[in-house]
Write a structure and sequence with these properties.
Length: 59
């Protein structure tokens, strides 16, 4: 879990680690999907709605 936390929140564009996480069969598919999407898009997900209860920049 420390590896996943570090990659998602500390070193979010480490492509080698993201590819490794996307390939971890033992990891929940939702986390593997996040890694794969980040690799594909090159962007960090917008978590504002989930964390704050509304869209980023909205009231």
């Amino acid at each position: 879990m420390a590896r996943i936390w570090r990659i998602f929140y500390i070193d979010p564009f480490n492509r080698d680690e993201l590819a490794g996480i996307a390939a971890l069969d033992r990891l929940a598919s939702s986390w593997r999907d996040y890694a794969a999407r980040r690799l594909q898009s090159g962007r960090i997900e917008d978590w504002a709605k989930r964390l704050e209860g509304h869209e980023a920049g909205g009231d």
